[in-house]
Amino acid sequence: MTTYPSVSTSLVLSVAISCAIWGVSARADDIEAQLANGDGFEINSQGTNVVRLRVNSDGSVLVPALPAGAIEDQYLCFDTTSGQLGRCLTPPTGATGPAGPAGATGATGVQGIMGATGPVGPMGTTGATGSIGPMGLTGSTGSTGLTGATGSIGPIGATGATGGVGATGTTGNIGPTGSPGAVGATGATGIQGLAGPTGATGSMGTTGGFGPTGLMGVTGVTGGVGSTGAPGSIGPTGSVGAMGATGSTGAAGPTGASNAINCSWITGAPATVGAAMGSTGSSFAICAAPRTVAAGGCEGFTSVAIARSQVIGTDSWQCFFNRIVTIGNSNDLSAQAYCCLP
Questions:
Q1: Which segments in the chain show pLDDT lower than 70?
Q2: 55 in Cβ contact with 41 (< 8 Å)
Q3: How far is CA 174 from CA 188, 223, 232, in A?
Q4: What is the CA radius of gyration of the chain?
Q5: HSE-CB for 150 with a 13 A CA cutoff
Q6: 10 — phi, psi (to 5°)?
Q7: Contact, 270 vs 299, CB < 8 A?
Q8: DSSP-derived pairing of the beta strands 61-62 and 51-56
Q9: pTM value?
Q10: CA 12 from centroid of its chain's CA atoms
């Protein structure tokens, strides 16, 4: 099927009349008007000469009353080849425009009265934080039982007997032998005997005796001291002396004063931190005079929120909360102060 470009239904009349005048298949009863270039065919209101329809020689059709005409609820399309009119197969749809800016958040209304119990509905808005109620009386602290005194330390036991002396180490090696002394001087030669008459060669005479022994040489240098022998083994350890007798228990000392009755924790009124990102809340815990704040903190469970905890003056503790990511529900958070008497 051929698709048709869309035209507003306000053009139906003009196009229908134009087709009646410029029909493509002329019949015997058709009305024809041939226009010269630049001329036009007009239909005017009787008596006022107001142009209701004009067909120009270039084929353009004008219906001057259309801009002020009534708005219709249908579209008219034409065939792009033959110019035949008909209902649109698919009504034209314009492009989706950009999303408009988010509207401002409305103010929180007051909480309505409770109706009959029905199905669980969405969570209602949180009411305003009530004023801090008076501090309740601090309950008395029970007395602490007496602590028994520590017994005195018993005397030190007798020292065990000294072990026996270890065995003597082995004797060191003998030092090296000293160098030999100098050789003694040779004794004097004996007097030569008288020459005998020359005769036949006698037999060789006996060897003369040895000369006297020379003096003893100088004593050699004393050898070095040998290395010390290995130490003897340690004697056995003496037996441990008997434990001294336990001393008698001393008298009980006085019980120290307790500071618990002078200090106590109080919790301030809770602050509701909304579920949306950027929601804030602040809670104060205030000490009743004459008590002063000694420490403090924040109580409650939350997620993706940051808190600032600080002392205010001498009698208050503040917790400030800021939601950094949107979550599904709000949280109630409170400040706590540790209040003490001066």
A1: 1-28, 184, 190, 193, 195-196, 199, 202, 205, 208-209, 211, 213-214, 216-218, 220, 232, 234-235, 237-244, 247, 250, 252-261, 303-304
A2: yes
A3: 41, 8, 20
A4: 67
A5: 3
A6: -70, -10
A7: no
A8: antiparallel
A9: 0.27
A10: 71
Structure tokens at 46: 């009787």
pLDDT tens digits for 196-225?
677 677 677 677 667 676 676 667 677 777
Could you tell me the strand order of the sheet in which 6-8 lies? Answer: 6-8, 75-78, 85-87
Beta strands in the chain (DSSP E): 6-8, 40-44, 51-56, 61-62, 75-78, 85-87, 263-267, 271-273, 280-286, 292-299, 305-312, 316-323, 331-340
Strands (E), 160-256: none
Q: How many residues does the chain have?
A: 342
CA dihedral 309, 311, 316, 317 (to 10 degrees): 10
Token look-up 């958040």 returns 105
